[in-house]
Write a structure and sequence with these properties.
mainly beta, PH-domain like, 5-stranded mixed sheet, 3-stranded antiparallel sheet, 2 helices, 37% strand
Length: 131
Amino acid sequence: MRYAERIEVVGDQVKVHFKDARVQDIPVTAVAIIGEYTNEDGPFADDHFLVIVTRAGQCIETAVDSMGPDALVLLGALLGQELSTSLDGQTTFNSRVLWPAQIADKPLMSFTQQSLFTVRSDVLKYADYGL
């Protein structure tokens, strides 16, 4: 999973800003899954993240607080479904899918005892890249 400093929506593109000043444009049509997760790092560090999985299998995460203004509203409008996070304030590992609607609210991540996580394989099958 790659960490992005910021994600914003411009036109029909998701602009992903990485720490090394690189910017990646992802067409909204290439987005396969959008989800959110929390961890136990708060309140002094980011603990609520948005995850975008592309149809090519790329996973990108960013802190929900660092998203561009109205990014979820604009993205939801382009995808035809209202998107909103609901795990704010969670203090443990938790996750859920926001989009697509067929799997919305299902767990996005599998967490292990070592605090490592992966996107669940039953969720990834919706990415259409061969799983």
